[in-house]
Amino acid sequence: METKIDEIAEGIYRLSTYVPDIAPPVGFTFNQFLVIGDEPLMFHTGPRKMFALNRDALARIIPPERLRWIGFGHFESDECGAMNEWLSVAPQATAAHGQTGVYVSLNDFADRAPRVLKDGEVIDIGGGKRVRFIDTPHTPHGWDAGVMYEESTGTLLCGDLFTQLGNDRALTDGDVVGPAIAAEDLFKYSALNPGMGTTIRELAKLAPRTLALMHGPSFSGDGAAALRALADDYDRRVSAQMTKAMQRLAA
Ligand SMILES: [Fe+2]
Ligand SMILES: [Fe+2]
């Protein structure tokens, strides 16, 4: 396996590792995002077993010990499995996550004290980069789920939202909604909940210019339209499930 590096927005690097054995024959990507500032932030740590790959890739951009912030979407192995390895190589680094994730998991799991981020709280990492944490509970999954938004580039670090198969390209202006619907059909990875469409439509209000997908290419274009279309599809799924539940109750 190798980890490819691409700059997907100004000062935001995608570190992408392709795993052909997951969902063959098209395979699956695991992407980390490094946001460059005076205090560099990485969104997702990658799985623990990919740590060496990701550390060597990051070292082609900055010395790993310069890393200051570790963010991620929710407590799960590919999102934060290598957290303690990163904390070990980067003595100034701090994991930063929402209140639920810190109190439920990180206070126990992280080898150094994490920073709690309130919904909407911004970390100013310097160099003009400001990274906002936004709670998205259970969306797409995880009680502690959240996303990060880099304000200066309009980049939504959207974690597992828009997950898709394959290893198309680093950055696309093509359709990211259809492939996400196909992946949801296959993996059923989302915790369908009635608030899901509303949660995703709130993200659309940010009008992001770039969507940084954890699994798939990054998207450049009308992020709001893509988010609204994804929200519509989840509303459709939730509505279908609720109709079935109502029919069972009525039977
Ligand atoms: Fe996940
Ligand atoms: Fe993921």
From TrEMBL:
Residues 29-167 form the ODP domain. InterPro entries: ODP_dom, RibonucZ/Hydroxyglut_hydro. PANTHER family: ANAEROBIC NITRIC OXIDE REDUCTASE FLAVORUBREDOXIN. Pfam families: ODP. It comes from Mesorhizobium argentiipisi. This is MBL fold metallo-hydrolase. Transmembrane segments: none annotated.
